[in-house]
Amino acid sequence: MSKLRLSDQTKYPNIFEKVYWGYNPYDPNRDKDVDVFENRNKFVEQFNIKKAIDKFNPGIKLLLNLEFNYETFDDMKKDMKKDNLFTKTTPTKIIDKFKYQTLSHKFNDHVEVYETNDNKIIVLSSPYTLRNSEYELFLEKTGFIDYNKLYISSAVSFYKIYNKEETTVSYLTKKIRMMLKTP
Questions:
Q1: Three-class SS of residue 10?
Q2: How far apart are CA 162 and CA 172, in angstroms?
């Protein structure tokens, strides 16, 4: 009898069952890309993954919006300064927007977040896109690193490692305030 979920096809179902990819049903007629299962096993072992964590907690959501929408952030900052709308409360408004809204970006797809045994946080994304110049530019601008396919064969995967503190609302709020050069 075959196992029922995609996570069950890995050596680490307890880690992957908590992410979107992992709790999807396994269909042996559809899910023939064994490399994805092997790549996920290697991912856990290479990065010493302890567990999957909630990508919707405020710190992670703020981090994801800041990382994936750096262009939006820069545009908002320019527009506000140009229109003289930049006030002492502007950073708070930007932070609230990034903390509570999910801003879309073509590379922000099938995001998974993991904690390692040495208290690092790994953000992983697997969008349906090609490895082309636009993808390469995104990696260069954001510091994400291309990785083996971890979603399906028609999606790329990339990751970035953070210190746990870098994923907290207080740290990110200070970072945004510094980026805006405000007290």
A1: coil
A2: 12
| Token digits of residue 107 | 């590379």
Per-residue pLDDT tens digits for 96-151: 666 555 555 667 778 899 999 999 999 999 988 888 888 888 888 889 999 999 99
Please tell me the distance from the alpha carbon of residue 144 to that of residue 147, in angstroms, as a whole number.
9
C-alpha–C-alpha distance, residues 33 and 46, integer Å: 20
- Tens digits of per-residue pLDDT, 16-49? 999 999 999 988 877 777 799 999 999 999 999 9
156 touches 129 (CB < 8 A)? yes
Residue pLDDT, tens place only, 6-17:
999 999 999 999
Give me the residue label for tokens 């880690």: 15
Q: What is the CA radius of gyration of the chain?
A: 18
Helix (H, G, I), strand (E, B) or coil at 90: helix
Size of the chain, expressed as the number of residues it contains: 183
Nearest to 10 by CA among 32, 38, 33, 30: 38
Rounded to 10 degrees, what is the CA torsion of 13, 18, 24, 25? Answer: 40
